[in-house]
Amino acid sequence: MHEYLNHRRQPEILELVSENSPVLREQCRRLTKDEILSAEIQNLIDDIKFTCSEKKTGVGLSANQVGKPVAISVVAIKPTPGRPNLEPFEKVCINTEITETFGEKVPLWEGCQSTALDENGEPAMAKVLRYEKVRIKYFDESGEEQEEIVESLVAHVIQHETDHLNGILFTDLIDKADLISYQEFSKLEK
Prior knowledge:
Blueprint: H1 33-36, H2 39-54, E1 60-62, E2 72-77, E3 89-110, E4 126-139, E5 145-151, H3 152-165, H4 182-189
Antiparallel strand pairs: 1-2, 2-3, 3-4, 4-5
């Protein structure tokens, strides 16, 4: 039996680090298959998923956003106050690489749970140019290597989270004067 199955525990909500934290600027460490299958990493994945499910905003979270500089991202798309019609979608991507891009970059609204928070603690939003379709290579949470093409919002979120793994924040890609509050964004999107 796999080591992790013997160490299953209730997931916890993790505290997010702020944009001033040096861990957000680090290149995240890639994981081996044995590390991916360890109880420590499997519990971290469960905690990141649970944290995403408990937040009312946000459609993804990387491990360095909770202070762990390892190359794990969870895409956790769900309806949010600003995007009430989103189809739920979840994917764990470890050691993610974008191996091919398709077409031109397109603008989509983006925020980040670790950066540019407004006075209510919600992410400020801005349009960010990213590829609408990308080919990705990654390991899933079972340690199996995967390769696939993703598009639309999933591609956008994966590019955002992969940037996190490389120490890049979405605010590095925009003019900060273009940021709007989450409340303003919510009114735009309805």
